[in-house]
């Protein structure tokens, strides 16, 4: 019924308000924004990443995981026929290289389409890797056990749920427990487009555990990156099309209540935490129009922001890196470890910088 109602509504709105909605969406996409370059001196592109590293998560010991090769309907890809994968880089090495992790037999590698990722270290030091996966553009969360000696991932579980219709990112809070963002309310591509076009703000954050699955925050334009504060008391959520980061307080029953909203002038994608300071690093898209309508002559730009004291009245926001697309196109994540910065992109290259 909701789908029929929306289709009828869209027909009327397109006839009457097309120009108005076009203006609104240009603003949400920051369609006219250009960036001034902010360069870092010691950077190089990472060999072996040519078609995106949408998300990056770094363990406390300096092992970095990359989610590579994401494909989405309507989104540009430099390797449309190649399955995605998980790469690893040891940031303790002098010249670290990205190596693809082997995945255990029985897991469908041909349709592997990884998106957001998160690691969890259990009390017995077992490392779990949670991966949002879109096999044939469906929505699952895969849980793997990382086996460091073999440089491999052992697949443990595939999670599907009606409350996870359009998963973007996860933050693991237990061996089978996580918060996830849905970037759309619907899973159908046409209804997704419609929902974004009408700015319905129906997207949400879901808490998943084997015993309980529930919506814990809602009303986002398009909930995207998610992470947790170092003291585990707060959850941070990026709302990409509203240009906002939401700070939510986590309660013992895993429910969330909104504490504050930080407004920014860019499309905010994935969020990472600097373990040494608690600062939030944000991979951003200064101009969403260029990101979604790809033109090699006018490619999407990249921007990385650092947010200090996010819980304070006036957090400090600084630009760590910005590029007009000549080096790096469509930055989606920035992650830091011991003065080393990794910047990933939605569908382009990845950058390694020594700060």
Automatic annotation (TrEMBL):
This is Paraoxonase. Ca(2+) 1 binds at residues 55, 168, 224, 269-270. GO terms for biological process: response to toxic substance. It is an enzyme of class 3 (hydrolase). Capable of hydrolyzing lactones and a number of aromatic carboxylic acid esters. Disulfide bonds join 43-353. SUPFAM superfamilies: Calcium-dependent phosphotriesterase.
């Amino acid at each position: 019924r909701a789908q029929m109602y929306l289709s009828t509504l869209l027909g009327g709105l397109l006839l009457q308000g097309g120009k108005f909605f076009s203006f609104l969406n240009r603003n949400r996409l920051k369609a006219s924004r250009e960036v001034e370059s902010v360069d870092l001196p010691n950077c190089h592109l990472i060999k072996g990443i040519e078609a995106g590293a949408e998300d990056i998560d770094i363990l406390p010991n300096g092992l970095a995981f990359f989610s590579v090769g994401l494909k989405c309907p309507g989104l540009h890809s430099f390797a449309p026929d190649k399955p995605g994968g998980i790469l690893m880089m040891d940031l303790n090495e002098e010249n670290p290289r990205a190596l693809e992790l082997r995945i255990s037999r029985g897991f469908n590698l041909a349709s592997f389409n990884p998106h957001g990722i998160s690691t969890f270290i259990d009390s017995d030091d077992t490392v779990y890797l949670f991966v949002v996966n879109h096999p044939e553009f469906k929505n699952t969360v895969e849980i793997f056990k990382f086996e460091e000696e073999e440089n491999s991932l052992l697949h443990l579980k595939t999670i599907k749920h009606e409350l996870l219709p359009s998963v973007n990112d996860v933050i693991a809070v237990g061996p089978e427990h996580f918060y996830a963002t849905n970037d759309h309310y619907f899973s159908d591509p046409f209804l997704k487009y419609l929902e974004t076009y009408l700015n319905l703000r129906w997207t949400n954050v879901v808490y998943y555990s084997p015993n309980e699955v529930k919506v814990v925050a809602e009303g986002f334009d398009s909930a995207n990156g998610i992470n947790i504060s170092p003291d585990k008391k707060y959850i941070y959520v990026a709302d990409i099309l509203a240009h906002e980061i939401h700070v939510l307080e986590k309660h013992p029953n895993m429910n969330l209540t909104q504490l504050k909203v930080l407004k920014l002038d860019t499309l905010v994608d994935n969020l990472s935490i600097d373990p040494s300071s608690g600062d939030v690093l944000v991979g951003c898209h200064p101009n969403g129009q260029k990101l979604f309508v790809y033109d090699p002559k006018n490619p999407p730009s990249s921007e990385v922001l650092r947010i200090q004291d996010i819980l304070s009245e006036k957090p400090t926001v600084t630009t760590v890196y910005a590029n007009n697309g000549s080096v790096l196109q469509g930055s989606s994540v920035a992650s830091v470890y011991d003065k080393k910065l990794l910047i990933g992109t939605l569908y382009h290259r990845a950058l390694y910088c020594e700060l």
